[in-house]
Here is the input.
Amino acid sequence: MLVKAFLTRKDNPLLVVPFLFNPKELSVEKSNQFAEVNIPGLASPVFQFVRGNARTVTLDLFFDTYEEGIDVRIFTDRITGWDAGSMFSNLPGITKGLMDIDSDLHAPPICLFVWGAFIFQCIIERVSKRFTMFLPEGIPVRATLNVTLKEYREVDVQVREIDLHSSDITKKYIVKSGDSIWLIAAKEYGNPADWRLIAYANEIENPMVLSPGQEIIIPAKE
Here is the structure.
């Protein structure tokens, strides 16, 4: 039998929070942040990469306990935390929800969203909970959770993955038509503000003047 999607704590994978139904759709968003650098003489700014933003997964989770006649919050509150005033909120020693602050971590736990081969390490950033059916005594038995998961990656993992192909070796560059010292610095160093390194190394007094075919030195950036 196929296992339905679920959430779990990374530090305690035996604590599984199951979904009653698999999501019908899944949205994944990834973005990068760039800064605009204005260069004299150019009609448009040069874009300098600042940082990448964490991936975000958004999904709707549907819970229905009408046939069983039990409170649907038994399932939903294991994700969001126990609703104050609910019949479960005062039970002693009950497992905290995944969005509750862990007393040892002093923060909500790092989670894993697992659906088949898709494993997403994340924090639960936001949940919107909507109850849509109730028993006559007011107990909710149907709910939809709109869940936003933010990717979590440890610092040491990200450092190991950094592209180390930075400009650390002096080399030569042939100026092409349309080149400027700022564009060359942006291409070679990733930062147009480093144009002075090139200017000093080549004794360029007027950085506005470069000739196509001119050979210049690109010094190592320390």
About this structure: The chain has a mean pLDDT of 85. The helical segments are 73-80, 155-161, 181-189, 195-202.
